[in-house]
Amino acid sequence: MSFVRRSARMNDSQRGAWDRHAADFVVDVPPAELSTSIADGASVDWVREFGRRADLIVEIGSGAGDSLVPMAAARPEADVVAFEVFEPAVASTLGRIGREGLTNVRIVVADGAQGLGRLFDDGTISEVWTFFADPWHKSRHHKRRLVSGAFGDVVARKLVPGGVWRLATDWEDYALWMREELDDHALLENVHGGWAPRLADRPVTKYESRGIAAGRRIYDLTYRRRA
Ligand SMILES: C[S@@+](CC[C@H](N)C(=O)[O-])C[C@H]1O[C@@H](n2cnc3c(N)ncnc32)[C@H](O)[C@@H]1O
């Protein structure tokens, strides 16, 4: 488990969005012992879920959907599955999905590291996005970090050959750790040989602006699954 859910209440508008849209966009998966973990053997037929066969993108830690919603809207030809453990944020995302009229997004309220490993066949995902996903940026928390060489193994296994993993963080020590863990990964290639240019259509989210306001630099990385 890379994450344990904080329990939190939704405000009225989030509750309304949840009631209106959860049935259409939240994918229920059988939980294991913790509410955010996914039962071993759980599976989702994504072609059936989306009603079509399309490129699959997975975002882990989608928050309120600040990147997810505009980026999915810009990619109507792809289907996007987002993992987010914080229900009020999922509810806000649902409201935005509804307002935008998107049909190519689904959300799983569960740990995305586990979900990626368990709910997708190997070699079926075109892109994985982890943008500011991790609260465990400090070195003393490095064992709890989402991004690691071991998680890189899972991402690499799930990506199609040539598929890409896009990461962004505003914590320098975490960014350097990502490079240490992933640059020499046997199945992943650092596409830019170093930091990636900012992805043109990745919006500046609330978390990113906070980092910038605090004087932190934003680090983007892109890794490609070797053929
Ligand atoms: C700092 S916020 C950033 C949200 C969004 N990516 C953005 O840039 O606006 C991190 C989010 O990732 C979620 N998160 C962290 N680890 C996760 C995991 N393993 N699975 C699912 N969600 C996770 C947290 O609940 C939180 O909402």
From TrEMBL:
Its EC number is 2.1.1.33. Keywords: Methyltransferase, S-adenosyl-L-methionine, Transferase, tRNA processing. Catalyzes the formation of N(7)-methylguanine at position 46 (m7G46) in tRNA. HAMAP family: tRNA_methyltr_TrmB. Coiled coil: none annotated. Pathway: tRNA modification; N(7)-methylguanine-tRNA biosynthesis. Substrate binds at residues 138, 170, 205-208. This is tRNA (guanine-N(7)-)-methyltransferase. CDD domains: AdoMet_MTases. S-adenosyl-L-methionine binds at residues 59, 84, 111, 134. It catalyses: guanosine(46) in tRNA + S-adenosyl-L-methionine = N(7)-methylguanosine(46) in tRNA + S-adenosyl-L-homocysteine. It comes from Tessaracoccus oleiagri. It is an enzyme of class 2 (transferase). Belongs to the class I-like SAM-binding methyltransferase superfamily. TrmB family. It holds the Pfam family Methyltransf_4. InterPro entries: SAM-dependent_MTases_sf, tRNA_(Gua-N-7)_MeTrfase_Trmb, tRNA_methyltr_TrmB_bact. GO terms for cellular component: tRNA methyltransferase complex. One of its GO terms (molecular function) is tRNA (guanine(46)-N7)-methyltransferase activity.
